[in-house]
């Protein structure tokens, strides 16, 4: 689900109610060990971007310095629409 490769967090498969806490904790572990921010979170392998996925991403962001320590890349169109509907486009750095 979460891999740390080339100084990026790679999120893969699906985040759902059964695994959201596990995914959150796995990502948080990498974020807490990371020294130089921003950290890039690659969502290219995320199969189903949904509001629960977004909640996990936002919770990770809150654990970074000044709550600005994550940059998100390869955001799907569906996830982008959820971000916009949630009025989070100014809070999340999309690259």
From TrEMBL:
Residues annotated as domain MlaB-like STAS: 12-87
Family annotation (InterPro entries): MlaB-like_STAS (IPR058548), STAS_dom_sf (IPR036513)
Residue ranges crossing the lipid bilayer per the database entry: none
Gene3D superfamilies the UniProt entry points to: STAS domain
Listed name of the protein: MlaB-like STAS domain-containing protein
């Amino acid at each position: 689900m979460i891999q740390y490769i080339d100084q990026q967090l790679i999120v893969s498969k699906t985040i759902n109610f059964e695994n959201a806490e596990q995914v959150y904790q796995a990502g948080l572990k990498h974020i807490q060990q990371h020294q130089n921010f921003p950290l890039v979170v690659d969502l290219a392998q995320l199969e189903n971007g949904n509001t629960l996925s977004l909640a996990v991403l936002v919770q990770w962001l809150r654990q970074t310095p000044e709550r600005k320590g994550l940059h998100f890349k390869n955001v799907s169109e569906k996830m982008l629409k959820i971000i916009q509907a949630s009025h989070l486009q100014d809070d999340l750095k999309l690259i």
